[in-house]
Amino acid sequence: MSKIAVVYWSGTGNTEQMAQQVAAGAKGGGGDVTSFQAAEFSADLMDQYDAVAFGCPSMGAEELEEDEFAPMFEQCEKKLKGKKIGLFGSYGWGDGEWMRCWEDRCIDDEAVIAHECVICNEAPDDEAQQACKDLGKSLV
Ligand SMILES: Cc1cc2nc3c(=O)[nH]c(=O)nc-3n(C[C@H](O)[C@H](O)[C@H](O)COP(=O)(O)O)c2cc1C
User: Fold this and answer.
1) Cα Rg of the chain (Å, integer)
2) Which residue, 24, 97, 23, is CA-closest to 54?
3) In a mutational test of the pocket of ligand 1, which residue from 14, 59, 68, 118 has the highest number of ligand atoms less than 8 Å from its CB?
4) What ipTM did this prediction achieve?
5) Which of 45, 72, 92, 134 has a CA between 20 and 30 Å from the CA of residue 51?
6) What is the pLDDT averaged over residues 25-47?
7) Dihedrals phi, psi of 134, to nearest 5 degrees
8) Whose CA is nearest to atom 17 of ligand 1?
9) pLDDT, tens digit, for every residue of 56-81?
10) Residue nearest to atom 19 of ligand 1 (CA)
């Protein structure tokens, strides 16, 4: 069975709601899913998973959250080459620039991006929740 980690940071719960749908989609697709908050995950866990979904909202000025998520993700980047991943997150007033930069970074790291990145404005609506489920399923 495919082992999938869903790793996310969320300040006000929007990205957490997305993470729950990603996990549900991966489970529904038959995956063995474990969810982690950013502070609970580290690069040495990467080898234990066939695929990883990373979720982080747009923070700072179109940045990944800097205290917990960004340092953890920077370490994980060393293990992204050839790894099946998905990216998701919520944003507020911007246009999704943080996700475009983040995706480019992962392409440079030679990750295998299994599904189009999923972004949504503030709380995920029905369409975004379905897109998160599809993302989760694509990782199985
Ligand atoms: C400190 C801070 C910085 C933010 N910076 C941005 C930003 O640069 N661009 C943007 O679109 N939204 C920005 N936002 C809005 C959040 O991305 C948005 O509220 C998101 O839904 C939060 O997700 P969460 O509930 O998972 O924490 C910022 C929010 C905070 C609190």
Assistant:
1) 13
2) 23
3) 59
4) 0.99
5) 92
6) 98
7) -60, -40
8) 91
9) 999 999 999 999 999 999 999 999 99
10) 92
| Pocket lining for ligand 1, CB < 6 angstroms | 10-16, 57-62, 90-94, 122
Assigned token pair, 132 = 């998160």
Query: Which two three-digit tokens encode residue 37?
Result: 């908050």
Query: For 3-138, CATH number?
Result: 3.40.50.360
Q: Mean pLDDT, to the nearest integer, of 120-140?
A: 98
- Does residue 91 register a pLDDT over 90? yes
The torsion of the CA quartet 13, 15, 20, 21, rounded to 10 degrees, works out to 130
pLDDT of residue 1 exceeding 90: no
Give residue limits of the domains in the chain.
3-138
30 burial level (CB within 10 Å; 0-12, 13-18, 19+): exposed
- Rounded to a whole number of angstroms, the distance between the first and last alpha carbons of the chain is 8
